[in-house]
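Long-time lurker. I teach an intro course on protein structure, and each term I like to show students one example going from raw sequence to a predicted 3D structure in token notation. This year I'd like something fresh instead of my usual example. Would anyone be willing to generate the tokens for the chain below so I can use it in lecture? Attribution to the forum is fine with me.
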Amino acid sequence: MNKLTEKQQQIFDFILTSLREEGAIPTVREIARAFGFSSTNSVVTHLDALVNKGYINRRPGAARNIEIAPDYLIPERGVPIVGSVAAGTPIDAIENLEGYLDLDAIYEPGMHYALRIVGDSMIEAGFWDGDYAIVRHQPQVESGEIGVAIIDGQATVKRFRWLPDGNLMLVPENEKYQPFTVDQDAQFSVGGKVVGMHRVIQ
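-- Reply from a regular --
Happy to contribute to a lecture. Here you go:
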């Protein structure tokens, strides 16, 4: 790896600290505010240098589009954060590793992963926008349980209701939203059973 300048190191350390303490990568605007930059262009310049030197990667089209390069993550501890999942209408599932939640004392390593909730359709079940759903790897979710449904490559958190005809109804926990049935022609898979929630207090 190429050596970082002092400012690049400070920004990289800030990203690591945010991920470790808040469970989320900071946005470009958050970095700009933290370092007193008058515009985000200065941040982008430093981030581009971190990309070129192999410390981070960036995903286009996302607000929190910074990923720590694998060499700088600590995989031996924590529940992996593998992206975001909708609690409203389905959104594209993001499968890239974003970091770890230090929850080993509660959840068995290797058996669980975390998804950041986007939306409000599960608020009556205690899941708010920005919370982390803790998901156990398993191929089936029983009727009445909350699970991750992946439909045509998109993911959503809902309560599963298996109908007598074998179809699956996905039920939100917010009266503003209506249940919907998975189309028989859709490509569907179970992403696992939601077994817990983690909230990062800002």
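Some talking points for your students: Residues 6-22 form the longest helix (17 residues). The first strand starts at residue 56 and ends at 58.
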